[in-house]
Amino acid sequence: MLKRLLILLCLLGGVLPVAFAQNYCLTPPAPAAPRYNGPAVLGARPGSPIIFRLPFSGERPMKFSARRLPKGLSLNAAEGIISGSVKKPGEYVVKLKAKNASGSVKAKLILKIGDTIALTPPMGWNSWNCWGLEVSQEKVMASARALISSGLADYGYCYINIDDAWQAPDRDADGKLQPNDRFPDIAGLGEWLHGQGLRLGIYSSPGATTCGGYLGSLDYEEKDVQTWNDWGVDYLKYDLCGYRAYLKTLPEVTQADHIKPYVKMKELLALQPRDICYSICQYGLMEVWTWGREAGGNLWRTTGDLTDKWERVHRIGFQKQRGLAGYSGPGHWNDPDMLVVGKVGWGEGLRDTRLTADEQYTHVSLWALLAAPLMIGGDLSLLDEFTRNLLCNHEIIAVDQDPLGKQADCLLEDGAIQVWGRPLCDGSFAAGIFNLGEEALSVDIIEKLKGAGWSGIGSCRDLWRQKPCPQTVNIPSHGVIMLKFNAMGAK
């Protein structure tokens, strides 16, 4: 009875007293009629395969159409999946439409064929935070199916990334990296994902071994990249772990020593006939944000691993990301690590995240303001209604995916209150007013925004509740109010 009541309140966008239940939903239910949930821009290299599942929410069945598709692309009108390739560089404006029994909606997608991919931060799922070294093809496929059935794919989540522990103990006679028994057919998995409009991610290390002791790519980089291309891989997470054994042999470790293996992989990826989003997992060592773009990264980890503890979210999100905004932008993103929401466990038995509901709202709000990749780390096959509600707020996602690509920074620190903000492509601003203290605080929104450098505040919208924001709001401990507003005289 209690569970049914919680789900009902989530669906209605209701709020429960914290003493009654930890989780409460703020995002209003999506309409039955179609709604486009972004992104507004998509990048690909000339001739590279394009797989794009149209992110329209709404009741199914739904019919899709696309006008002005460039030559080489086609649309599956029943499934809403654009595929193919475009040889001619340029900018193409594609007019999309979705229709169901409840209505129809039009949207615009700008397709940029050129040198830059990942024009907005990647969105999807990674196996590590739930399965760790116990990952399998069956579990990956279950999460992919859940990404679709839960509706997450209708909000732009598209990458399905296999982390460590997929590799066999030995290469074949030709030196080709093989999957282990838990992954009988990675190429087949990639083909199946592409048929669903999703994309396949893989994991390796520039060292001889990975974090989990599996085979890395040292001395086999070219062969491995060719293998991943043959499998249809769309994303590579390249983890420093095993390379540290080599670094320990050096009398002095320099920045150049860290850059070298990542540049080598960059050059090999560039030779492939498909786009492979390149994630540099280097834990922020040697100020990777200053050279990650030079090394070819589409994203790079700025810190060590994030775990589901408030202290860790506070340190990585509010302390370690300060001053990094200038290094991030379309095609090249700072990455403060995967989202620690939902069911997590790192392969040691799944459990609910230890973050409170308010801490999870803060976590997702800050990552959206930071223009961070939105990679879900929990088990999607066990997705509860609160977590789905948390991850499927299209107005929050729109901030993260804003084409301007400007990362937020801390603009005001007033006791336990911090204000982080960023400009958006339509001339408005997004900001989060965070309460990092241990007690709830009453906050005058206009006063805090003015203190952060904005004056003449016009219309203001509460993005979680999707309604006009009040003048004064009560922000719970470790909580947030996330805003979009117009302002004159901004600094």
Which features would summarize this protein structure in a list?
491 residues; 6-stranded antiparallel sheet; 3 domains; Immunoglobulin-like; alpha/beta; TIM Barrel; 12 helices; 8-stranded parallel sheet
Please outline what is shown here.
With 491 residues, the protein is α/β, with parallel strands linked by helices. The protein has helices at residues 2-11, 128-131, 137-149, 186-195, 221-231, 244-247, 255-270, 310-319, 357-369, 385-391, 394-400, 445-451; strands at residues 35-36, 41-44, 50-53, 56-57, 63-67, 73-76, 81-84, 90-100, 103-113, 123-126, 159-161, 199-204, 233-239, 277-281, 299-301, 333-335, 343-344, 351-352, 374-376, 409-414, 417-423, 429-435, 441-444, 460-462, 467-468, 472-475, 480-485.
Structure commentary:
This protein is of the alpha/beta class. It has three domains: 35-113, Sandwich (Immunoglobulin-like); 123-400, Alpha-Beta Barrel (TIM Barrel); 408-485, Immunoglobulin-like, CATH 2.60.40. It contains twelve helices and 27 strands. It has helices spanning 2-11, 128-131, 137-149, 186-195, 221-231, 244-247, 255-270, 310-319, 357-369, 385-391, 394-400, 445-451, and strands at 35-36, 41-44, 50-53, 56-57, 63-67, 73-76, 81-84, 90-100, 103-113, 123-126, 159-161, 199-204, 233-239, 277-281, 299-301, 333-335, 343-344, 351-352, 374-376, 409-414, 417-423, 429-435, 441-444, 460-462, 467-468, 472-475, 480-485. Helix 8 (310-319) packs parallel to helix 9 and helix 9 packs across helix 11 (394-400). It starts with a helix and ends in a 6-residue tail after the last strand.
